Amino acid sequence: MPDPRKKIQQLMDCLEELRLHVGRRDLSVGGQRVNAPLYFSVANACLRNRAVLLYGGMGANKTTLVNLLGCSFLSLGLEEVEDLVISGHPEQTEEKIVGFLDPRQWAEPSPGPARVLWTGWARSKWKLINEINRFPGGKQNLFLEILQKRRISYAGQVLTPGDTCYFATMNPEFSSTYPVDQALLDRISACVPATQPDFLAGLLLAERERDVRELAEELPRFTAGEFEALPGLVAKKALKSQVELAILCLLRDFTLCERAPAYDKSQLSKAKPSLGLCSGCHYWNNPEAVCWQVDEGLSDRVRQDLRAFCRALAFLLDRDADLQVLRAVAPYVIWHRVTPLPSALDKPPYFGAGRLAYVADLVDRSINRTMNERAEMNRIYSRAMDGQMDAGRAIEELSLFDDPIARMDFIASLEQRVK
């Protein structure tokens, strides 16, 4: 089989040459700059059972980009892929989304179990939910179940479409939009802003004279075998040991809270950092401590998504899955899942609007701290867990570190061994 990565690069080059996608190179991986909506969407096509949300204003090429990628990866025409899209509006029904009872069964002499005529969207392994925040909360629960259980149920019947690529788009809040449930957002693997074309992109788009449907026919097509082989190729990308450690510390930095039950911020309901929970805590206002700067903790889904997208992006860029890749990926995996402290987000350089940049700075601080200041405490804990150091002595030495992970994770773990 030819190297699918070469065909992927050909696809991305073709999208730009045909003026079908000419976004800014807003994602920096080491010294390489690429377009975030394009690379995260293609990375998602190389994975299975992950979900990428493209967030941005109307006309930012969110839906069209996903549909064009669907043409290439599924080897279908643009109109065929557009038939697999469901779009949000309050009158959208479950029957229009997933399926309906086959009326022919009622005319049969001895009806058997209920038969459901599933929609093309339900059966497809490429699912796009367009304008997800135009669905009311009750209908959003349908997508929560699909993303959580990887199956679709209706009238007592169950459809299991198999490993699927999930995409969604979302506009900023308008009068016709609804809040997206936090549980649903936690099942969105990565959220990527899609911005309007800049000046240069506008000039390039002005050169496009042919219809998008006509141009879509010129995109390279993947065979079914090539498309199905992509997750296996991505899985071969090994994560560096430093990346695995940094991911674990990143989750703990966001989740640990000295005043939460079991030190777990995800257990909190009304008590939150933004509501005064951290007042008087010795970590409060410490810029190196992440805990007080966001309201929510992170679930283990974040760890899984970070590992998957680090591998996928490293595969696409043909490089090691190292800390530079993690620094690039992590903000997009985390920022839609947390609420920054308003008093910190409102200050320059964020001005209340730079939520992604704010989370990116927190990610950098966590990784830098893990790779530098935490080296010694990690060594002490590892030696104690391996039996090379007395647990009591390790607890004494770790108590000298003013670090949430040392105090609430490492010491708590070693105290269980001493008892």
Summarize this structure as a short list of keywords or feature phrases.
single chain; 419 residues; alpha/beta; 5-stranded parallel β-sheet; two-stranded antiparallel ribbon; 11 strands; 46% helix; globular
**What Rg, in angstroms, do the CA atoms define?**
24 Å
Basic shape = globular
Strand residue content:
5-15%
DSSP summary, beta strand count: 11
Q: Helix and strand succession? A: HEEHEHHEHEEHEHEEEHEHHHHHHHHHHH
Number of helices: 19
Question: What is the percent of helical residues?
Answer: 40-55%
Category by helix and strand content: alpha/beta
With strands numbered from the N-terminus, the spatial order across the biggest sheet is: 4-7-10-3-11
The biggest beta sheet reads:
5 strands, parallel
Distance between the termini: 57 Å
Mean pLDDT: 94
